[in-house]
């Protein structure tokens, strides 16, 4: 499968990268393990591709956007202090893909749908969809102009559970914003106000991140290759045996990775016993609304939200409880 | 320096493959897999899915195993690229290839190059991997023929043989064939 023609730019600094954005429509390229697959399928191809691989600014910091998932997975500091991040990275795709795939590309992963991630021939035979060449949604009869393709990145729920921030750089300014305010609930627009010429530079953890116990559970058929069919990250800040604060985040259940504040709020300050965990897990199952646009059935994925949630919260409890 | 133009020449690109300098003429959008097979003429690296879902196209870039189907050729310039042809000479096998043959880890052989490049990188980083480490390392490579057990056996056998060479019978090797 030949890639369609484009001009590749390989800037060595962010300033050079921003200069090229004026050449016309472009896509940023991290490791290319998502973008190049879409390009091979002739999905939303742009005339220019700007590789960020040689930009040193993106490789700085523990969670630099240009770090590969393999580096994240094996980073001794992450493994010791924020193991859920290294663990979630180790569950993404395959070891070969993780050698190239980046943290930045993972957080900005395009949303996915049966009717979209297909060859051009398949899409044209089928009639394509909102997110590619047509103006209809093949999943819902009337999605209200919103695309329901699933956000399926594995790192975002974990970073949401840590309440991470993302640092973006643009041609004229840099800014930092909470990850929870980064995404938009629309599989096409995907981000609330990120401009196309802004680059994700890194993610940052809050000062108290080490005081949280974070665990991630992923639903997939095979232990390698498969995107999450559901993913739940739980975070608990323990204070003398009490769950002083709790966070719960999901991926693959919506077109956006979501933080579920209202589900855990009633249990803040509790001992997070089995009953509390079951209540949260049940509430999550009732909340998530998986669509019929991935391999597993929506009803199974919905039921599994409860199981994943229960496991993640139980794993957060101190050993032996 | 060997010059091998593609059918649609665009830009000259300098690649270092298996220790040799190559100048090829490629499109910006050509993958390393396209270029290795069609411009450099090294067809040991196989095109399976072309989408990251089989591992047949694995090569090493600066010693790291990567998928050449999802790597732009231009992104690999200035790097040391190793393909299956670069593991050993045409006349001899590496210990890993020898173990592959002895364990019967190839049937149709289509996946073999990708597995070898992945396993070779693993053994350099972990000379005595456990079976679990081996399985995890090759979990991005698919084989339609062997059922994987003989592949894991071959890698373990190679590790054990090399361990025995390094310290004959000094300590027990972790792989199945241990020193008596
Ligand atoms: C077989 C297979 C299995 C996979 N399984 C999983 C899985 O289980 N879980 C999962 O999460 N993903 C999975 N993926 C998807 C992908 O490999 C990963 O999400 C990976 O982390 C993407 O990173 P990348 O650097 O390759 O992204 P790219 O393909 O380079 O980019 C992805 C998107 O992010 C944009 N982008 C990249 N970097 C930046 C930046 N710094 N600033 C702004 N925009 C940027 C690109 O323009 C593009 O839109 C899988 C892919 C394949 C092929
Ligand atoms: S051909 Fe590259 S992974 Fe299948
Ligand atoms: S030997 Fe045939 S695919 Fe592996």
Percentage of residues in helical conformation of chain A: 25-40%
Number of strands of chain A: 10
Q: How helix-rich are the residues of chain B, as a percent range? A: 25-40%
Broad shape of chain A? globular
**Uncertain residue ranges of chain B:** 1-8, 172-180
CATH homologous superfamily of the largest domain in chain B - what is it? Beta-grasp domain
Structural write-up:
The complex is a heterodimer of chains A (321) and B (180). Chain A is an alpha+beta fold. Among the domains of chain A are: 1-54, Uridine Diphospho-n-acetylenolpyruvylglucosamine Reductase, domain 2; 209-316, CO dehydrogenase flavoprotein, C-terminal domain (Enolase-like, domain 1). Chain A is built from 12 helices and 10 strands. Chain A has helices spanning 14-20, 35-40, 69-74, 76-81, 83-90, 95-98, 103-107, 120-126, 155-161, 261-264, 274-287, 298-316; strands spanning 7-9, 26-29, 48-51, 165-169, 174-178, 199-204, 212-219, 230-239, 242-251, 258-259. In chain A, the strands form 3 sheets. In chain A, strands 7-8-9-10 form a 4-stranded antiparallel β-sheet, with helices on both faces. In chain A, strand 2, helix 2 (35-40) and strand 3 form a beta-alpha-beta unit. In chain A, helix 11 runs antiparallel to helix 12. Chain B has 180 residues and is α/β, with parallel strands linked by helices. Helices cover 32% and strands 16% of the residues of chain B. In chain B, strands 1-3-2-6-4-5 form a 6-stranded mixed β-sheet, sandwiched between helices. The N and C termini of chain B lie far apart (50 Å). Chain B is globular, with a radius of gyration of 17 Å. In chain B, a hairpin with a 2-residue loop joins strand 2 and strand 3 (20-26). Chain B folds into 2 domains: 11-86, Beta-grasp domain (Ubiquitin-like (UB roll)); 95-168, [2Fe-2S]-binding domain (DNA polymerase, domain 1), CATH 1.10.150.120. Chains A and B meet through helix 2 and helix 6 of A and strand 5 of B. The complex binds flavin-adenine dinucleotide and FE2/S2 (inorganic) cluster (2 copies).
């Amino acid at each position: 499968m030949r890639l369609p023609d484009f001009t590749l730019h390989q800037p060595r600094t962010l300033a050079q990268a921003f200069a090229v954005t004026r050449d016309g429509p472009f896509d940023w390229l991290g490791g290319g393990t998502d973008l190049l697959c879409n390009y091979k399928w002739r999905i939303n191809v742009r005339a220019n591709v700007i590789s960020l691989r040689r930009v040193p600014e993106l490789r700085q910091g523990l969670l630099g956007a240009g770090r590969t998932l393999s580096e994240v997975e094996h980073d001794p500091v992450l493994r010791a202090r924020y193991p859920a991040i290294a663990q979630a990275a180790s569950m993404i795709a395959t070891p070969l893909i993780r050698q190239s795939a980046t943290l930045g590309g993972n957080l900005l992963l395009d949303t996915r749908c049966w009717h979209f991630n297909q060859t051009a021939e398949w899409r044209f035979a089928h009639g394509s969809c909102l997110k590619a060449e047509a103006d209809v949604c093949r999943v819902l009869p009337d999605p209200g102009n919103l695309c329901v393709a699933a956000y399926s990145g594995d790192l975002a729920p974990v970073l949401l559970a840590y309440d991470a921030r993302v640092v973006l750089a643009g041609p004229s300014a840099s800014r930092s914003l909470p990850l929870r305010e980064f995404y938009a609930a629309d599989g096409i627009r995907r981000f609330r106000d990120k401009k196309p010429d802004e680059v994700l530079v890194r993610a940052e953890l809050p000062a108290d991140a080490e005081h949280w116990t974070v665990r991630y559970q992923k639903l997939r058929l095979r232990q390698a290759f498969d995107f999450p069919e559901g993913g739940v990250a739980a975070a608990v800040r323990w204070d003398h045996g009490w769950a002083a604060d709790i966070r719960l985040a999901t991926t693959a259940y919506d077109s956006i990775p979501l933080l579920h504040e209202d589900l855990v709020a009633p249990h803040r300050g509790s001992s997070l016993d089995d009953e509390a965990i079951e209540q949260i897990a049940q509430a999550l199952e009732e909340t998530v609304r998986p669509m019929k646009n991935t391999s597993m059935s929506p009803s199974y994925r919905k039921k599994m939200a409860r199981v994943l949630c229960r496991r993640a919260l139980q794993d957060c409890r101190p050993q032996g409880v | 320096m060997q010059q091998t133009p593609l059918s649609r020449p665009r830009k000259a690109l300098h690649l270092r493959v298996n220790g040799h300098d190559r100048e090829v003429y490629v499109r910006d959008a050509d993958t390393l897999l396209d270029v290795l097979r069609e411009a450099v003429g090294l067809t040991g690296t196989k095109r399976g899915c072309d989408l990251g879902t089989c591992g047949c196209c694995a090569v090493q870039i600066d010693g790291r195993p990567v998928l050449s189907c999802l790597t732009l050729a231009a992104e690999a310039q200035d790097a040391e690229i190793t393909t299956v042809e670069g593991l050993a000479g045409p006349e001899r096998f590496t210990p890993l290839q020898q173990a592959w043959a002895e364990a019967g880890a190839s049937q149709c052989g289509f996946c073999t190059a990708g597995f070898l490049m992945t396993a070779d990188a693993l053994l350099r980083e972990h000379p005595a991997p456990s079976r679990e480490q081996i399985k995890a390392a090759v979990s991005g490579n698919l084989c339609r023929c062997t059922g994987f057990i003989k592949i894991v056996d071959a890698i373990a056998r190679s590790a054990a043989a090399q361990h025995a060479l390094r310290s004959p019978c000094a300590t027990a090797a972790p792989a199945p064939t241990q020193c008596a």
